[in-house]
């Protein structure tokens, strides 16, 4: 139950005051992405009624689907560098931010066909919240029973026919499942300048800053899961807290040079600056809850990337056939300063006892640095023949250079200069049935070593990757689409070796079958449902003989997602929603001797759309993890955190 508070009372009062108006409202249609972009309105946000498939959609505060920005087909498209803003290459150091994201789509299979240069494991595509032509102000206030509070403001301010501004701010005051606390402030500003009908410039800037007390990650002394751990209990000193800031800025431009010619560009700067950071580990954890508490204290860290893409597109119409040729130049320059941590051994402890140790004087060592330079030129063709099918072919040449090392010492060098290519074809068998198949290669980042590795935070080399997939899309009705496909993704396998270093241990192959059904089943019921069956495996010289099991850490065999939104008859403005997620056992150690058991999570919620003084408003209430399921989240090989448990919360959105 949501606790009584001034904010809760205000929500209730607004709802009661608006009740007579609510029954005069008609049922709200599914949110229109273009309208949201133009007006800044947020009261109509509804991920279930917006999603085109079950492969991953984020809109506002809601994320649904089989995949997300950190996990698609068993890999992380974000760590791989497969992030786009309006289809343009973005080397993300810090996420674009909710103030600037209109929607986020995970593009895999057939949904990636419209991307001139697809990538293995899919693409994270941010649709930008471009300022529009109408004045708008959206307010959102949220809370839950743990005491989490947040307040968000988004404004759209047209200055004249050519110029519009967008402003946003958000304050988050969080209380987490492990009794840690966090507070962050986010600010953003955007503009849309259209001096002529053929030229549009969209600059933006956003910054976030704050702190977060770091809760523990649990590492058992031997194979096996941790014992049952206390919830809502801070196991760590309150001085072990992260403090820092993050920053994104950029410019998106579109120039329609002449009929059939378009030049599109994006230039982006992304960075974070950590003033201080801590990693809180409970190591050698025994069945009785005893272990050793170890903290890593980081000196100031910095990660910066400047990236972008310039793309010239020629479009030619030939009756029912459309031809597009893309010439692209992508580039990025990255810098990372990391390492130098001080190790604080707080000694034997129990997970049931608070940590009372005072903060010691910290001594840091010399930090490492890495620099990355990469440019890629590409040429792609897209052909669409109405009633027949589509073809997409691309060729890229990339030059990659990375230098890692200590200041004043010769760096470790990593270079690569491969050709990359992709080909995807789709055929329209009938007006309702489309089949497709494709092959794509990539050169991707492999991320950084995790916090429980001996080489924690170390940047890893670029890797060659490949993906094969095929499938179909079938229109079950005019509104409901079925998508089914198979895929085979191959990458080098990085994880902890016998010495605790995060390094290449072989190759990983993820083969699977994925399905999606999405759309409005009736005028009142919308459904987004999907499933994926996976067969992940590791191959290499040490597999089976050097403590390396045949399955990669984090591997699952199946995942099923169901999301439904229903509008009861006779209750205009009200909708009820269900989210159910099932996941099979998850491989938790390199040896494969430990696994997190299967789990099913269920969320229930509802939203009430009404009017306040003639303005659109939505009250959203939700119960997450209805059954209060207990268990663990994998944080790396042999490293665990808790599932959050049941949580009640809600928020009120008003468009003024």
Give the CATH class. Answer: Mainly Beta
Low-confidence stretches: 1-39
Distance between the termini: 29 Å
Work out the count of structural domains.
1
CATH superfamily: TonB-dependent receptor, beta-barrel domain
- The percent range for strand residues is over 45%
The fold-level CATH name is Maltoporin, Chain A
Q: Examine the secondary-structure arrangement and name the CATH architecture.
A: Beta Barrel
Q: Which term fits the overall shape?
A: globular
Average pLDDT value?
Answer: 89
Q: Rg to the nearest angstrom? A: 25 Å
**Total DSSP E strands:** 36
Helix content: under 10%
Please outline the major beta sheet: 22 strands, antiparallel, barrel
How do the strands and helices of this protein lay out in sequence?
Elements: H1 6-22, H2 33-39, H3 47-50, E1 57-59, E2 62-64, E3 83-85, E4 88-89, E5 101-107, E6 123-128, E7 136-144, E8 149-158, E9 163-175, E10 181-196, E11 199-213, E12 216-220, E13 241-258, E14 261-285, E15 290-298, E16 301-318, E17 321-338, E18 342-350, E19 368-385, E20 389-405, E21 412-416, E22 419-430, E23 433-444, E24 463-475, E25 481-496, E26 502-520, E27 525-539, E28 558-566, E29 574-583, E30 586-587, E31 595-596, E32 599-612, E33 615-624, E34 632-636, E35 639-642, E36 647-655
Task: Quickly describe the structure.
This protein has 656 residues and is mostly beta strands. It is built from three helices and 36 strands.
What do these coordinates show?
The protein is 4% helix and 58% strand. By secondary structure, it is mainly beta. It has a single domain, classed as TonB-dependent receptor, beta-barrel domain (Maltoporin, Chain A, Beta Barrel). The strands form four sheets. The chain has a 22-stranded antiparallel β-barrel. Strands 2-1-5-6-3-4 form a six-stranded mixed beta sheet. It has a two-stranded antiparallel sheet with strand order 30-31. A hairpin with a 2-residue loop joins strand 13 (241-258) and strand 14. The longest helix is centred in the first third of the chain and has 17 residues, at 6-22.
